[in-house]
Structures are given as C-alpha cells and as structure tokens.
Amino acid sequence: FCNCLTFGQCEISRQMLKLSFHLGVAGGCHELLQHAPVQPKTKADTLPLSSHRRRRRQLKVEYDKDEGVAPVKTGHWEPPDWKKQLEFIREMRRSRDAPVDNMGAEKCYDTGAPAHVRRFQVLVSLMLSSQTKDQVTAAAMQKLRAHGCTVENILNTDDETLGKLVYPVGFWRTKVKYLKLTSAMLQKEFGGDIPKSVEELVRLPGVGPKMAHLAMDIAWDQVSGIGVDTHVHRISNRLGWLRKPTKNPEETRKALEEWLPRELWSEINWLLVGFGQQLCLPVNPLCSVCLNQHSCPSGLCLLHIEEK
Ligand code: SF4
C-alpha cells in the first residue's frame, strides 16, 4: 500500500481501496491506477458534459460510516459587531433616565402588597402597556392601585368604572374586557395568582408572548425568553442583528434567541426599549449622536440621507 493509505490520511486512497476490492485488484491507490485497464475512447466520451455527469452517477462508491464521529456543526451565526454595539448601547443608556427606567412594568406595582398581588399588578401593567406610552400606563396603574388592583377587586368593578380608571391607554375598551376575563381565569384556575409558565400565561385573554416572557422575568424572576416589543424589533433590524430582516416581534424574538447568549436576554429588553425611546427613535433616529453610527448599517444610510 502507498503511505497515505497505510496511515489513513487520504480519503481518496481509502475509497480507491474499496473500489479495488470490487474490481478484484490488490494494492493501494497507486497500484490500482496501474492495474486499471485503459479503455479506448467511446462515443460517450465525446458527448457534452451533462451526459458525462449522468454516466458518472451510475458508479457506485461506498463511503465509510461515520460511526462515533460527532456531526460537524454548520457554524453558529452571530452579527459581526454586536459585542461592540452592545457596549456602546450600555454606554448610551448609562444614565438610566428613559421612560422605561422609571415607569416600566417593574415600577408599576405596589411594593408593600403581598407577592401574588404584586405579580398580578405586573401582569396588569404589561396588559395595559401595549400600544401605549409608559407615562400613560403608569398613570393608569396609579389610579387602578388607588382603587385596589387585586383579582377580586377587578372582578367586583363594573366595566364603566374600570374604563374610566384605565383611560386613555390604547384600546382601553378591549383591555377592560381582557382584564375582566383574565382576572376570572386567574381566580378560577390559578388560585388568584398568575401562572408560572409561558404556556399558561399566553392562554390568558390579552396576553401575548412578549408579555408572557416579561411577566416570567419581572414577576417570577425567571428568564424564559426575550421580551420583544416594537423598539427591540425595530432596533434589532436596524443594527443587522438578525440573519435576515424580520416582519414582526415574534419572528425577531426567535431570531435573536438563536444567537444572543441567554444571560443577556433579560437585559436586552430594557436596554433597547430605553435606547429606542431616547435615541434610536422610530422616526428620525438621532444617528449623528449615536456611538454606533459607524457600524450600524441603517445609521450609515440615514447619515448619508442627512448629509444630502
Ligand atoms: S446609528 Fe441610528 S439607526 Fe443605528 S442604532 Fe444608532 S440611532 Fe439607531
């Protein structure tokens, strides 16, 4: 045998050896080449390449089974500059003075209330917060808490009074209905507390995946997934933090969770929400003062538009 076959270093030689056994030829790849009869050129050899391909497919080559060999990983994708960009966002968020820092769901519950009531108030503030500014949600929660924001009290309050308490949060009429239905379900199925899993939380009327993951994090101190709202969705797309652009927050959540280390899942929500409220605004983001302006694909585009 030739050296490469002896030491098993050459895949071609191993395949040639197999072929040699099929043909009844002893020896390594070099000997096989010597023994292989030289065929005279046939008509098929002069046909176009596609015919050669078809003919080659008929040759059966056996490959070694990869027993005990771990499958080769196809490569973990992550955005090229994300660590630097994240550091810059932390730097830009250092003063923690965005609306979410003072009026987010973490700040809207009654700290002196029993644990199950605090958890319920976290869920209520999350339900009220969709399509609503933090300032408006915080004001509604203040009125609700003064009224008595417990499962029993919400169930004992008529819709009109509840509507006046939460007005003017976005879609307040629908949210009043959801609050009543959710409270009834919590009382009936969960003993007045909120459930402790995303699967159960999303069964509650008016509670979607974003709210469920944030409720798990804030109310139960368990990180189950990234809370992706409109800010996180928009900024992730602008920064190119997704393998391909996404159409909605739920798509963004799944795409981010594929590569973002789990220990950052909780932090990323409040970081990007505040960043989106202060700098990376939905319309006219302040790219000229953003520390990521030179690495952000959208920032470069937006700066060029400003320059023109
Ligand atoms: S450069 Fe502009 S678009 Fe990019 S992250 Fe900064 S503010 Fe947002």
UniProtKB/TrEMBL annotation:
<keyword id="KW-0456">Lyase</keyword>
<comment type="function">
    <text>Bifunctional DNA N-glycosylase with associated apurinic/apyrimidinic (AP) lyase function that catalyzes the first step in base excision repair (BER), the primary repair pathway for the repair of oxidative DNA damage. The DNA N-glycosylase activity releases the damaged DNA base from DNA by cleaving the N-glycosidic bond, leaving an AP site. The AP lyase activity cleaves the phosphodiester bond 3' to the AP site by a beta-elimination. Primarily recognizes and repairs oxidative base damage of pyrimidines.</text>
</comment>
<keyword id="KW-0378">Hydrolase</keyword>
<keyword id="KW-0496">Mitochondrion</keyword>
<keyword id="KW-0408">Iron</keyword>
<dbReference type="GO" id="GO:0000703">
    <property type="term" value="F:oxidized pyrimidine nucleobase lesion DNA N-glycosylase activity"/>
</dbReference>
<dbReference type="InterPro" id="IPR030841">
    <property type="entry name" value="NTH1"/>
</dbReference>
<keyword id="KW-0227">DNA damage</keyword>
<keyword id="KW-0234">DNA repair</keyword>
<dbReference type="GO" id="GO:0005634">
    <property type="term" value="C:nucleus"/>
</dbReference>
<dbReference type="GO" id="GO:0140078">
    <property type="term" value="F:class I DNA-(apurinic or apyrimidinic site) endonuclease activity"/>
</dbReference>
<dbReference type="GO" id="GO:0046872">
    <property type="term" value="F:metal ion binding"/>
</dbReference>
<keyword id="KW-0411">Iron-sulfur</keyword>
<dbReference type="InterPro" id="IPR004036">
    <property type="entry name" value="Endonuclease-III-like_CS2"/>
</dbReference>
<dbReference type="GO" id="GO:0003677">
    <property type="term" value="F:DNA binding"/>
</dbReference>
<comment type="similarity">
    <text>Belongs to the Nth/MutY family.</text>
</comment>
<dbReference type="InterPro" id="IPR004035">
    <property type="entry name" value="Endouclease-III_FeS-bd_BS"/>
</dbReference>
<dbReference type="GO" id="GO:0006285">
    <property type="term" value="P:base-excision repair, AP site formation"/>
</dbReference>
<keyword id="KW-0004">4Fe-4S</keyword>
<dbReference type="GO" id="GO:0051539">
    <property type="term" value="F:4 iron, 4 sulfur cluster binding"/>
</dbReference>
<dbReference type="Pfam" id="PF00730">
    <property type="entry name" value="HhH-GPD"/>
</dbReference>
<keyword id="KW-0539">Nucleus</keyword>
<feature type="domain" description="HhH-GPD">
    <location>
        <begin position="128"/>
        <end position="278"/>
    </location>
</feature>
<dbReference type="InterPro" id="IPR011257">
    <property type="entry name" value="DNA_glycosylase"/>
</dbReference>
<dbReference type="Pfam" id="PF00633">
    <property type="entry name" value="HHH"/>
</dbReference>
<keyword id="KW-0809">Transit peptide</keyword>
<dbReference type="GO" id="GO:0005739">
    <property type="term" value="C:mitochondrion"/>
</dbReference>
<protein>
    <recommendedName>
        <fullName>Endonuclease III-like protein 1</fullName>
        <ecNumber>3.2.2.-</ecNumber>
        <ecNumber>4.2.99.18</ecNumber>
    </recommendedName>
</protein>
<dbReference type="GO" id="GO:0006289">
    <property type="term" value="P:nucleotide-excision repair"/>
</dbReference>
<keyword id="KW-0326">Glycosidase</keyword>
<dbReference type="InterPro" id="IPR023170">
    <property type="entry name" value="HhH_base_excis_C"/>
</dbReference>
<dbReference type="InterPro" id="IPR000445">
    <property type="entry name" value="HhH_motif"/>
</dbReference>
<dbReference type="InterPro" id="IPR003265">
    <property type="entry name" value="HhH-GPD_domain"/>
</dbReference>
<keyword id="KW-0479">Metal-binding</keyword>
